[in-house]
Amino acid sequence: MDAAAMPISLNTTINLADHGINAQAFRFGNLTMESDKWLSVKDAAADGSSQVVVIDMHNGNAVNRRPMKAEASLMSTADNIMALKGSTEGTPGHFVQ
Question: Are 1 and 9 in contact (CB under 8 A)?
């Protein structure tokens, strides 16, 4: 099939490994994409501590690393607002912040 006739065109816009994100974080539950603006990745820092990495794809792929123990994160599709899912030791269930 002619490439011009294909309904979808795929291009690489960012290589997460080039931004220091561990390849083990590239899996369901750790990496989310909110619209075409935000990538949110739960990753481990070099010292082993947990961090959430947010990449703003509308700002030159700006990377913002935040140390936190969240199990998962989601970004707002419009603003720089993050929802975090986690649990507290000794209490049942999860909380969203």
Answer: no
